[in-house]
Amino acid sequence: MVEKKSTSIASAAAATTDKEKTNQPVYSEAAVRNNFSILENSRTCQAAASGIASGALGLTGAYGFIFYFIFVLVQAILWEYKAGFKWNTFFVNRSLSITHSIVGGLFTYVLFWVFIYGIVYVY
């Protein structure tokens, strides 16, 4: 009896594993790479535009960095909206729309922020 129970538990576990495998989505590697490329290009353009805006507005210190992170969140919300809030059809993980290339975008942001601030308020 105990052996039969354990085999039925094992077969139930195997059936559950098979069900989990069939429920997992399949992603095209080329499509995911393309989505990351588009996200990185848009993050770079957004960082440049918000850096120009913050430099022209004269933001300094922590307010400038807060301005950047607000625009990162706004961009992530816009991407979610554009995707119809079905992020799992475009990305493997939901947080990637926020965290992907955030540091590279920050470098671009600081570059434009300091450059425009220097042109408008220093020179």
UniProtKB/TrEMBL annotation:
Keywords: Endoplasmic reticulum, Membrane, Transmembrane, Transmembrane helix. It holds the Pfam family EMC6. It is a multi-pass membrane protein. GO terms for cellular component: EMC complex. One of its GO terms (biological process) is autophagosome assembly. The chain crosses the membrane at residues 56-78, 98-122. Its main location: endoplasmic reticulum. It is found in: Endoplasmic reticulum membrane. InterPro entries: Emc6 (IPR008504), EMC6-like (IPR029008). Belongs to the EMC6 family. This is ER membrane protein complex subunit 6. The lineage of its organism: Eukaryota, Metazoa, Ecdysozoa, Nematoda, Chromadorea.
